[in-house]
TrEMBL record:
Classification via Gene3D superfamilies: Protein Inhibitor Of Neuronal Nitric Oxide Synthase
Transmembrane regions listed in the UniProt entry: none
Organism field: Tetraparma gracilis
SUPFAM superfamilies with a match to the protein in the record: DLC
Organism superkingdom: Eukaryota
Protein name: Dynein light chain
Pfam families, A to Z: Dynein_light
Length: 77
């Protein structure tokens, strides 16, 4: 199973709803829980604006995308 093909793909409208400040934490938790259920435990998710990262993760288990100005980082370690 290819993770990139099976990962949830939210629409732009769904992302706009999730990106209000109080819901960013909830969005990251929802993404993390979805990936944990679908691909096994130990996933981490960060959602927000203006952040960088330096991580160690398993090969082929890193997703870093932008929806407008909002970055979404998911990785398995």
């Amino acid at each position: 199973m290819m993770m990139s093909e099976d990962a949830p793909k939210p629409t732009e409208k769904e992302m706009q709803k999730l990106m209000s400040r109080p819901l960013i934490k909830a969005a990251a938790l929802l993404i993390k829980n979805t990936l944990d259920k679908r691909f096994g435990l130990t996933w981490h998710a960060a959602v927000g604006e203006g952040f960088g990262f330096d991580i160690t993760c398993q090969n082929r288990y890193l997703i870093y995308v932008f929806y407008g100005s909002v970055g979404v980082l998911c990785y398995k370690c």
